[in-house]
Amino acid sequence: MKITWVTRAFADYRLPVYKELNTLSIDNLTVIYNKDIVKSDLSEKLENLLGNRAIGLSDEKVLIGQKRENSAFANSYIRIPYQKNLISTLVNTEPEMMISDGFFQWTYAPLYIRFRKNIPHVMCYERTPHTERNVQWYRERYRKLAMKWIDRIICSGSLCGEYVQSIGYSPKKIHYGHMVADVNWLTEFSKSVTSEISTELKHRFNADLVFLYTGQIIPRKGIKELIVAWNKSKLNNNPETALVLIGGGDQIEEIRKLIETKNINNVYLLGKIPYNEIATYYAMADVFIIPTLEDNWSLVVPEAMSTGLPVICSKYNGCWPELVTEENGWVFDPLNNQEFVDTLEHTLDHKDSFTLMGLKSQQIVNNHSPEKAAQSIWQACNMAYNNTKH
Hints:
Layout: E1 3-8, H1 14-24, E2 29-34, H2 40-50, E3 54-57, E4 61-65, E5 79-82, H3 86-92, E6 97-101, H4 108-117, E7 121-125, H5 137-146, E8 152-155, H6 158-166, E9 174-176, H7 184-192, H8 195-205, E10 209-214, H9 223-232, E11 241-246, H10 252-261, E12 267-271, H11 278-284, E13 287-290, H12 300-306, E14 311-314, H13 320-323, E15 329-332, H14 337-349, H15 354-365, H16 370-386
Parallel strand pairs: 1-2, 1-6, 2-3, 6-7, 7-8, 8-9, 10-11, 10-13, 11-12, 13-14, 14-15
Antiparallel strand pairs: 4-5
Helix pairs in contact: 1-2, 1-16, 3-4, 7-11, 8-11, 9-14
């Protein structure tokens, strides 16, 4: 089956999925993307994988809106792009199956081709009822219309599936499991970090138990709520514990001042660090915390899990039903300050279980491999193909 995936942009974690899907399709996968957005090293890797079936387009125009800010909450902006030659390029690949990412961006091309030529179309999706709580009427109306030309939707998880069904998509046409994280190198590197290295790094933070956050320091990630709860909890200025925050963003100075104002001496705001050094911090940490106020599927969660960490996860993170259970972590409401405080203190009371919980994290994340993601996509494509008239 000749498959063309119209994606506009992709990250490292997609490459292993492309590789597996290309194998399943017997070297019949084509990927069309925006080469002005995708990093050059990723473009090269994709070209090495697919050859001339990796098609990068450039000079995208924006018909409405402006460049998306990663720090923005969902539906706080609108952006309608137009890529010259996208539709003709898609047609020229002679696809028997099309894959898209989400309703907007470059999905207009496979929608149009599905309408005009009846070529089946499968869409990967991530949004949840929470991220779409403030969705505008015109977005939702467009999605309901577009669903007529989407034969199957592959959701990231059960929360995503709930949203898709809420706008009228048949549960019989929903598949699950297209999201993965690029965890292999993290897993292997963390194994190479010796106990001496971890102990030496922990001494830097003067703690036996390190709570770690990695990601953007922006309002959407709930870092301010984390600092307020930490300050109120018995972890604050506890000689046994430390909170390490890694990442940059437009809220970093506000958080720094908040830590100083509250006179908290066991929270460390490190800012950005090179990506290849993050594994050392995962290996050193005892538990991972993600207090996000809105995320479809945080890739840092499976990253942390792959290194053997239990997870304290916000209920506003779309990945928690699949990745975080009572066996490997805790789920809480970061907007409920008392619940946040109670959760932090509860984890401290169960510190002796961290190692076993971390092992469970690794078992769970192994079920979200590139191979299984590709199999889910392949199954959706086959069912869409078989149910579409040619």
